């Protein structure tokens, strides 16, 4: 059975290449919106943090109707994948739009998702956007895309990709550069013509893989996924096949499909539809919703084990809590448990202390995104330095090893190799890639990556891209370098400009947000070596210069200006960091005054 009336696609695009503008345009032109209705909700835009970091973490669904066909558009996570999400999302679709800026060309950041899409044998459509730019160079960009596809192992059919030239801004698309166009119609037509319609067995027992979970305080958990086989109805009794082989019963209370940016309640949905369902309170990502009589699970995407953990504890530093709104243990626990619903590769465990939790994830970035999100929501808490999770295998202590992929402009290759060498990385592969970038691949113990991201961004002037996936466990080598500890002191008064996350190497995590005031002499963190200071945290304007002190080496470099080392140390309670929160800053200011 072929669902001729449906096309399921994903969009792969680099930040700023125009994905949001294009989807807005498709929505406007597909007739979902009445002529005078403004599209003010930019749904594909995920959350603020994703945007600032240039990565997408959550995936969102949008649907547009073009003539008789419904096009479901799912957003793909960017290069950061913490729990097999990219693969799950791509399994819902039959084709991908690779959206590329007509001047900038394909970016290495998209390589990870693109490779997965090609491996899954999805049909690519290359959309060259911003052809209105005066510096557009569409033909060269297409050559670059072809090279990239070749390198990522595209098959002949995938290499013969259709091309759509587009100006999302002007709402036009065309399949030949010299064509005239006044709408996105050629894009819609290309999607309908080249992306296969979903097909399968509609009269066989139901199967739907839960790809994402959304939660809603009124209806509880909402499971989103594509119907792989059969049909589903509102109020239907279903079997839920969990990933460990257990089967339990459930009932579909509400059934939705997507329409525009909204969910729409429906009575029935069929094979090929992307649906959202409520009613199964304990549903999880990776589970299969199946027929009660024939409960057959679909293969689920393996989720990597956590490799790094940090302790989250209620903020009990001398500078916190005095002004009232500190988070209680219960709030912290509830928030962390809620995170587990959707953050599938995260683990939360109780600790010996009642007000501290051990949170484990797929790396420092994974945990730091959570920390940042929670801080933006107003939670105040302390975090310990990241620790590697060791594991005993056959009586041998083993440590996690990561497969690290790095894309950097050629001029930075030297410094990256040197730094990673000192962090026990072993180079596996090196190739020159697209757009003047070189690609380096390493095997590296997870401990060697701790604190590396900020160093890497500084070393590559923000131009490097790093991504790692779990490689395996290997016997731990007892060569973890001892690092001395230092204190980071601000010596100018000012305002932190970048929303940054400072990783004091192996000591903890520190946050400085835009507009966070920083006072002279204020301790803003702890670091282990002078070179660990991330000067990028505070960019040039209104800047606060940071200097490290504490380790002999750093002291020699830059003695703290206002405070003596002893005074600095007074503000650090044991191993804890003093977080730069507005409240702590006010507190400190008072003490300094
Ligand atoms: P996203 O990050 O991929 O979602 O990109 P946006 O849709 O937010 O677009 C990024 C920037 O590019 C915005 O300033 C858009 O106005 C601009 N933009 C998008 N499409 C076009 C286009 O076709 N032509 C030009 N000149 N600018 C565009």
Widest sheet: strand ordering: 12-11-17-8-9-16-13-14
Shape: globular
* Category from helices, strands and their pairing: alpha+beta
Report the bound ligands by name, code or SMILES.
Answer: guanosine-5'-diphosphate
Compute the number of helices: 15
Q: State mean pLDDT (0 to 100 scale).
A: 76
**Straight-line N-to-C gap:** 76 Å
Low-confidence stretches: 32-59, 317-326, 479-489, 491-516, 525-582
Task: Sketch the major β-sheet.
Answer: 8 strands, antiparallel
Question: How large is the share of residues in beta strands?
Answer: 25-35%
E-strand count: 34
In percent, how helical is the residue content? 10-25%
Radius of gyration: 26 Å
Labels describing this entry:
593 residues, alpha+beta, 7-stranded mixed sheet, 32% strand, binds guanosine-5'-diphosphate
């Amino acid at each position: 059975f072929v669902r001729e009336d449906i096309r399921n696609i994903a969009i792969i695009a680099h930040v700023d290449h125009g994905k949001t503008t294009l989807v807005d345009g498709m929505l406007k032109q597909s007739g979902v919106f009445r002529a005078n209705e403004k599209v003010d909700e930019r749904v594909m835009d995920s959350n603020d943090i994703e945007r600032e970091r240039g990565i997408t973490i959550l995936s969102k669904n949008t649907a547009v109707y073009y003539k008789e066909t419904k096009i479901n558009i799912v957003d793909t996570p960017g290069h950061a994948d913490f729990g097999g999400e990219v693969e799950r999302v791509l399994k819902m679709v039959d084709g991908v739009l690779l959206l590329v800026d007509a001047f900038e060309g394909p970016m290495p950041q998209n390589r990870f998702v693109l490779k997965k899409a090609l491996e899954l044998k999805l049909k690519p459509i290359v959309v060259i956007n911003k052809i209105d730019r005066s510096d557009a160079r569409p033909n060269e960009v297409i050559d670059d895309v072809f090279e990239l596809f070749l390198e990522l192992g595209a098959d002949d059919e995938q290499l013969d990709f259709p091309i759509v030239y587009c100006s999302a801004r002007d709402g036009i698309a065309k399949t030949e550069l010299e064509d005239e166009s006044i709408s996105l119609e050629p894009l819609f037509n290309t999607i309908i013509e080249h992306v296969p319609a979903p097909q399968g067995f509609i009269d066989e027992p139901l199967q739907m893989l839960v790809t994402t979970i959304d939660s809603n305080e009124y209806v509880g958990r909402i499971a989103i996924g594509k119907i792989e086989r059969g049909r589903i109805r509102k109020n239907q009794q279903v079997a839920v096949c969990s990933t460990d082989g257990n089967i339990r019963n459930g009932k579909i209370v509400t059934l939705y499909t997507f329409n525009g940016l909204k969910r729409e309640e429906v009575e029935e949905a069929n094979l090929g539809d992307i649906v959202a369902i409520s009613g199964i309170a304990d549903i999880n990502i990776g589970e299969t919703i199946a027929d009660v009589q024939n409960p057959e699970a679909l293969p689920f995407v393996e989720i990597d084990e956590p490799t790094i953990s940090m302790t989250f504890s209620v903020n009990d530093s001398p500078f916190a809590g005095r002004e009232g709104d500190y988070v209680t243990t219960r709030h912290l626990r509830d928030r962390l448990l809620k995170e587990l619903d959707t953050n599938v590769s995260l683990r939360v465990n109780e600790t010996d202390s009642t007000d501290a939790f051990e949170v484990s994830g797929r790396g420092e970035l994974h945990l730091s995104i959570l920390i940042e999100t929670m801080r933006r929501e107003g939670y105040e808490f302390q975090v310990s330095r990241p620790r590697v999770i060791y594991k005993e295998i056959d009586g041998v202590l083993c440590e996690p090893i990561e497969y690290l992929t790095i894309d950097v402009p050629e001029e930075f290759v030297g410094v990256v190799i040197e730094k990673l060498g000192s962090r026990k990385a072993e180079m596996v592969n090196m190739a020159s890639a697209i757009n003047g970038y070189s690609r380096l691949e390493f095997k590296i113990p997870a401990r060697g990556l701790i604190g590396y991201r900020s160093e890497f961004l500084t070393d590559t002037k923000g131009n490097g891209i790093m991504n790692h996936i779990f490689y395996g466990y290997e016997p731990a080598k007892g060569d973890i370098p001892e690092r001395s500890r230092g204190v980071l002191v601000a010596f100018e008064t000012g305002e932190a400009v970048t929303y940054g996350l400072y990783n004091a190497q192996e000591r903890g995590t520190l946050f400085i947000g835009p507009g966070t005031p920083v006072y002279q002499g204020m301790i803003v963190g702890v670091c282990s070596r002078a070179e660990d200071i991330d000067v990028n945290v505070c960019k040039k304007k209104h800047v606060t210069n940071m200097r490290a002190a504490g380790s002999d080496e750093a002291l020699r470099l830059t003695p703290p200006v206002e405070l003596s080392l002893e005074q600095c140390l007074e503000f650090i309670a044991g191993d804890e960091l003093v977080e730069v929160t507005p409240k702590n800053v006010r507190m400190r200011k008072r003490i300094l005054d």
